[in-house]
Amino acid sequence: MKKFNILFICVIIFHFSCKSVNYWKLEIEIPRVTSINLDQYKELIITNFLIEKETKDLNLNKELNDFFSSELAKNYKGQIVSKEISWEKKDLFKNKEFWQTLLPESEETVFLTGDVQFSQETRKAILDRRTMRSADLYLTPEKGLAQRKFFTLVLNLYLINSKSGELIYERNFKESKGYPNPKQTANFAFFDLMERVRLIFFRTIFGEEKIQQRYLITD
Description:
By secondary structure, the protein is an alpha/beta fold. The chain contains five helices and seven strands.
């Protein structure tokens, strides 16, 4: 079957190569299939996240709440609110009764919650002088040796149905990135890494469109 398909494609290419063909190169948006339909929920509640170790100079809960509230509002048609909850145990994410009792009368609400860790460290890296950029040369105090600032974001996201208390989405993210500037700010790096999370998360819940090229052949 594969040999037949390859032969067929070769015949088509040969056919059009032997004659003058006019065509239009098009870019079209193709929607992705979503595995979760948020439109069935009239309200989305963003809770405070479970943080075992706070990050210096960065309020993770505030930044996460602001980020998700702003980005979700661009696609989600329901109401977005925030709610503080008490994290007594980490395993509450899969405790159905806990989530059911938070909003006992609500039937069309979903919780966005999770746990997060954000860390940073400065490392020394040996650079190849032949491939160093002018920026590297400027920032490097020692020949061939430079400092790099590395940031790591560990974010476990959960979407929970308030009526059933069941998880409808669960994803564990671990994103890392190094910066040549040893004075790179944590705030900038955090939103840089969160953009990677957003692309994957939103693709699942909203089915963001992807661009594909197509050819329209005319006589």
